[in-house]
Design brief:
7-stranded parallel sheet; TIM Barrel; two-stranded antiparallel ribbon; 17 helices
């Protein structure tokens, strides 16, 4: 494939500075679209929806039909992996995820190999989407990063992560063992996704905030390095995007240590911080406030222009600092995407 025919996202991940940045949005597949909400009613529950390749592929493609986005991200959830490892996982309507008691680590360790097979439907979803998606639009696979997934597994629900952080201090060996299990199972899962059609892989470290530098090194940086090394050892050269959300100044440590091709930045990232990462040879992604996308208007336009001005002279992927909120007006999404693409 010539460079000109290569998807714009993959060119940015290869370090190219383009005439305009590729654009896609986290959580673009789903909650804000009426066609998604209608589709969702046809599944008995959220997990069944994620494991239905026909429905998940449709959810992945819906925003690609509405907006001139440069990449699709597979419709799935980061908590499918703990379920595949034997922990009970379900979603309460209006309240979010719930997880049962953390299984014995030895039991989960014995389930690592089987866990990938239990996620085979996500691979089928990727294959279906890649077959239908235009060749110039990239397809992204993803997984929750080990620390973020571990916080849910330990606490049993979304929270302020104080329980998981306390567990990390009080039970360092047990936490390291759990992270090792998640590193191995996540690497296998991502290898499967790449072989199924994912052209880029993203690690979502959604809960990287509030960690001391030494703890961040131990439970964020080291597991991310280990996952990528395992994926590369399996012969997969698919580019990685790492997203240590909320890490603040420690994003610089992350960018210097983890062999990702791009670092996703959240809303608080400064212009200088992003430029510093670009100067190191890596692409950056982000960082429009999802609340500003919901608000829309001239303030949104001005911020989009400012982000492109400050980071557009290096390899840059336009995105949000977090995911699309469910009540975001569709016309705001369309306006933002078209302002980036110039269409």
């Amino acid at each position: 494939m010539s460079d000109a025919a290569k998807p714009r996202l993959l060119r940015a991940l290869a370090g190219e500075t383009l005439d305009r940045p590729p654009v896609w949005f986290m959580r673009q597949a789903g909650r804000s679209l009426p066609e998604y909400r209608e589709l969702r009613t046809k599944a008995p529950d959220f997990i069944a929806f994620c494991h239905n390749p026909q429905m998940a592929a449709e959810a992945t493609l819906q925003p690609m039909r509405r907006f001139p986005l440069d990449a699709a991200i597979v419709f799935a959830d980061i908590l499918l992996l703990p379920k595949a490892l034997g922990q009970k996982v379900w979603f309460e309507a209006g309240e979010g995820p719930r997880l049962g008691e953390l299984p014995a680590l030895s039991v989960m360790e014995a389930e690592i190999e089987a866990s990938t097979g239990r996620l085979s439907e996500i691979g089928e979803t990727l294959t279906r989407v890649r077959a239908e998606l235009e060749p110039e639009r990239a397809l992204i696979g993803f997984a929750g990063a080990p620390w973020t997934v571990a916080t849910y597994m330990i606490e049993g629900r979304g929270s302020d992560r104080s329980g998981a952080r306390t567990y990390a201090y009080q039970n360092p060996e047990a936490l390291d063992h759990l992270l090792d299990i998640l590193v191995e199972s996540t690497a296998r899962y991502l290898v499967m996704q790449a072989k199924a059609g994912a052209q880029a892989l993203k690690l979502f470290e959604s809960w990287a905030e509030g960690l001391a530098e030494d703890v961040f090194e131990r439970i964020v940086i080291r597991p991310h390095i280990a996952i990528i090394e395992k994926v590369r050892a399996a012969g997969v050269d698919t580019p990685f995007i790492g997203f240590p959300r909320g890490a603040g100044a420690l994003v610089d440590n992350y960018a210097a240590a983890v062999p990702v091709q791009a670092v996703a930045l959240d809303t608080q990232a400064s212009a200088v911080q992003g430029q510093r990462i670009q100067a190191s040879g890596k692409a950056i992604q982000g960082a429009l406030d999802n609340l500003l996308l919901r608000a829309g208007g001239s303030a949104m336009d001005a911020r989009i222009d400012a982000l492109i001005e400050q980071w557009g002279k290096g390899p840059y992927i336009f995105n949000l600092g977090h995911g699309v909120l469910p009540d975001t007006p569709i016309e705001h999404i369309e306006r933002a995407v078209r302002r980036v693409t110039g269409t």
